[in-house]
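stuck on whats below:

***
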Amino acid sequence: MSFLNEIEPLKQTALAELKTAPDLAALEQTKGTWIGPNGKFTALMKQLGTLSKEEKPAAGKLINAAKVELEAALLSRREELELKAALPKEPTDFTLPGRRRALGKLHPLTQVTDDIVRAFRKIGFAVADGPEIEDEYHCFDALNTPADHPARDSQDTFYLNTTDKRLLRTHTSSVQIRVM
């Protein structure tokens, strides 16, 4: 009967070790020590063959019950440790302002234009920008465009209803005269 008396103290020691495992790695190591392929309870199962016919059923029943209890304790402790590992290390301050989600994206044509401008800047070009609404002097006169040039026709240029002959920037570059 000494074999049957060994099972309960081993089970209590194994339960204590499983419940006090500090982290998941230690828990897995403890599992291997007790119920793994080379564990102490697996060794007890292998020793069943040396027992008499009368002792085998009782010993097998005790060993299996102990293994079931150890596996339940292992699962419980694993859940505790996983929950503990998932918790944040620092407390969260819920009074801080939240992060706003960025709204919208650039239009694909704007993205392509930006890429082209970036490429030209890399090889040494400068990009100049000017007003969208321009006067006649910067669009035509300063660029020596004659008064009878087709670009000055109302079909090719969008004149605004103002007294100083304002117009939308034409196909000629009014910005170049500003840069020159």
The radius of gyration is 42 Å. DSSP finds seven helices and two strands in the chain.
